[in-house]
Amino acid sequence: MSENQNLLAEQRRALILDEVRRRGGVRVNELTRRLNVSDMTIRRDLDALARQGVIEKVHGGAVPVVEASTHEPGFEVKSALELSAKEDIARTAAAMAQPGSAIALSGGTTTYALARHLLDVPDLTVVTNSVRVADVFHDAQRPAAGRGARPGTATVVLTGGVRTPSDSLVGPVADRAIDSLHFDLLFLGVHGISAEAGLSTPNLAEAETNRRFVRSARRVVVVADHTKWGTVGLSSFATLDEVDTFVTDAGLAPGAREEIGEHLPGLVVAGEAHEPPEETVSPG
């Protein structure tokens, strides 16, 4: 972790959480040196992370909390994690969407970040079960002070359904809506991804809705930061073989990259040089 006195609190806490998870624990004095902030600041950060339920404070430092497979954090909690990684992933994934195509975005904080970058892609038709994603496009269509609505903004279809803690709409209403549609490209956020369990979520109804998304898409692109690798939720909804491309960040370990490469054709690491992704599709 680089030293930076000007890190925003949420950025600093995301760095601390990542360090806790990677190393299995950290000490307060190590964090003060690496982040170049006071002991009191670090303790406040650890208090905040402990209140969110993502770390456990111990004498002199903190250790990660092992989440149950049924635990589903809320949107605000997840929004504060891996901020720079999500932005890198979103910027890279947005380049895969072609003007005039029909795309789907599942719920999640990474797809929410992606939605903001997709505003620059003209004439999209967007289907989503995320209230937050729909709001991004809706706000872009509002006339701003002194000018009209943003040109070329997307046509957005919100599926309806029952709202989850992560602000996704799931259940029979969402499932029926998705079943009747066909997408050129699906951008899919996940709670967990592993070779054994595939893509998984703690929410049974969300798992079924995500299955419908995968079934209705010509191409499936998973957008998830490196901390999702090895996490397993209660219910699996797709195998790695059903994924065309996994867009992640540079924090993904070399061993994980090799394992992913054995199961799916495309691994794109945001911020690293790579060939243009094959899954870019034209509408039709």
Automatic annotation (TrEMBL):
The keyword Nucleotide-binding does not apply. GO terms for molecular function: DNA binding; DNA-binding transcription factor activity. The keyword Zinc does not apply. It comes from the Bacteria. Residues 9-64 form the HTH deoR-type domain. PROSITE patterns: HTH_DEOR_1, HTH_DEOR_2. Pfam families: DeoRC, HTH_DeoR. Keywords: DNA-binding, Transcription, Transcription regulation. This is DeoR/GlpR transcriptional regulator.
